[in-house]
Amino acid sequence: MKRTWWKEAVVYQVYWRSFMDSDGDGYGDLQGLIDKLDHIQELGVDIIWLNPVYESPDQDNGYDISDYNAIMAKAGTIGTWETLLRNVHSRGMKLIMDLVVNHTSSEHPWFAESRSSRDSAKRDWYIWKDAKDGKEPNNWRSYFSPSAWERDERTGQYYFHSFAAEQPDLNWANPEVREAVYDMMRFWLDKGIDGFRLDAIALLAKPEGYPDAADPHDIRYLTNNPGLHAYLKEMNEKVLRHYDIVTVGEAAFVTPEEGLKYVGEDRHELHTLFHFEVADEMRTWDMLRFKDIQTRWYEGLKGKGWNSQFLNNHDHTRQVTRYGNDGRYRVESAKLLATMVHTLPGTPYVYQGEEIGMTGVRFPSIDDYDDIAMKNRYAEEVGKGRDPREAFESLLPLSRDNSRTPMQWDDSPNAGFTTGTPWIKVNPNYKEINAARDIARPDSIYRYYQRLIALRKRHPVMVYGDYRDLSAGDPHLYVYSRSLDDTRWLVLLNHADHETPFALPEGYSDSNKTLVLANYADVEGSESIVSATLRPHEARIYAF
Ligand code: TEU
């Protein structure tokens, strides 16, 4: 498999509206991001992934686009954006943008024209169906609402939306739609961006004939339908392959076999993907399940395609809260999870704030939350007669707002994020958890991320090494090897809140090891690990 820059890179995701506010309106913005590029660059990352900044009514925080070629006013101007790109490039980093083309905003001019009449020239740019028996055309749910159909009074038909009613799906079966998307992609690529993160890309093709779903709640029927890969092949042929870029697809509900169809090097579709098997299949954190997922994906893609590794982003709660320990062992746990994400096979992603161990949040009221998915679900549950408090509590752990609270820069008001009123409350733990405090400490999470990322630059085994799980049956201990040429690394991770015994696997000589990194500061590299005890959330990397 060929070696390339994006396989060796580390990506930092910026959810700009929560990153840094430069003008006091309570929203982060592009100038604020420019002002904080040192923080990102000094981590050692290579690529910045910027969540959508295009013009939008902001019903789904920019994932409902009303003008693909303009910058949302609250984020800045096209001029600020171009300054950002110049700064990112002058610092030796790259910028990838979010490509949201499964749907537009209902306020996009394309949709306004499409809904204007049944014989509008753009009617077929979206998906319109007649009622069935006086009701929705079928029983599909959307990701964000009880029905995937919205009735349009003017023309008496329903339009389809995979997400909110404010996000009508584009009809990808229509070549005019595809060509308009390709033109837009060229607009941004010709400005010099270095790639795209392709939003909800598994949803572009819809089930033939729009039949009722056996179980409308098992929303997999919206993903990976026939025709999808023809679209991606065409997108690659007409646009992607003509630029030196990286493309990462967000593909829900894919198996490794299906994932290979997206990223197989002989497929000429995308370069890599975020698969959500952890989030989709594992509602509770189960180490055995996670290890099985990792091994299946490694075997499924090995030598043929490239994976991406992440544990949190703007849609999933903060990793130290969901998969680690955000209390007594927060620092050790944050470092352990980072060690795992950066030493497993695939390109690692850092979501803003995880590099300082930011945690999930529990605000007291539904009114403190913004996430349309959460608020729609809350309204649906309460509408069915569920106790409001109970409904609210049940939605808290997986609310996307857990990851969307403002970046915690320092212990000044609003964590230094804004001089105004933040669009969403700051996590009250910002006085203890903030970048200024972390950067000042040599043993901090931020400093650990710097060391981890620097390792990746020096040791190809972290990028290209073969992977083997050596602890498959252990519910707490995750031990795996990465080997390349005559270099072998052993990664030891104790995911438990208690001590866990470890025995050096067969074939590893205790006298021939070098400690590469440890998240506990007092580990003696020379101490024997023939049989050792790993402390709660202890991580170590040894070279043999
Ligand atoms: O998310 C897509 C999405 O919601 C599903 O893929 C889901 O996240 C996955 O199955 C994991 O359970 C993208 C954006 O990341 C999100 O912020 C937007 O709200 C959504 O698309 C609509 O654009």
Automatic annotation (TrEMBL):
Pfam families associated with the record: Alpha-amylase
EC class name: hydrolase
Protein name (record): oligo-1,6-glucosidase
Keyword Hydrolase: yes
Keyword Signal appears in the UniProt entry: no
InterPro entries, alphabetized: GH (IPR017853), GH13_cat_dom (IPR006047), Glyco_hydro_b (IPR013780), O16G_dom_2 (IPR045857)
Molecular functions (GO terms): alpha-amylase activity; oligo-1,6-glucosidase activity
Family membership: Belongs to the glycosyl hydrolase 13 family.
One BP annotation, GO: oligosaccharide catabolic process
Catalysed transformations (reactions): Hydrolysis of (1->6)-alpha-D-glucosidic linkages in some oligosaccharides produced from starch and glycogen by alpha-amylase, and in isomaltose
EC number(s) on file: 3.2.1.10
SMART domains documented for this protein: Aamy (SM00642)
Keywords: Glycosidase, Hydrolase
Listed PANTHER family: ALPHA-AMYLASE FAMILY MEMBER, OLIGO-1,6-GLUCOSIDASE 1
Domain of life of the source: Bacteria
Span of domain Glycosyl hydrolase family 13 catalytic: 13-404
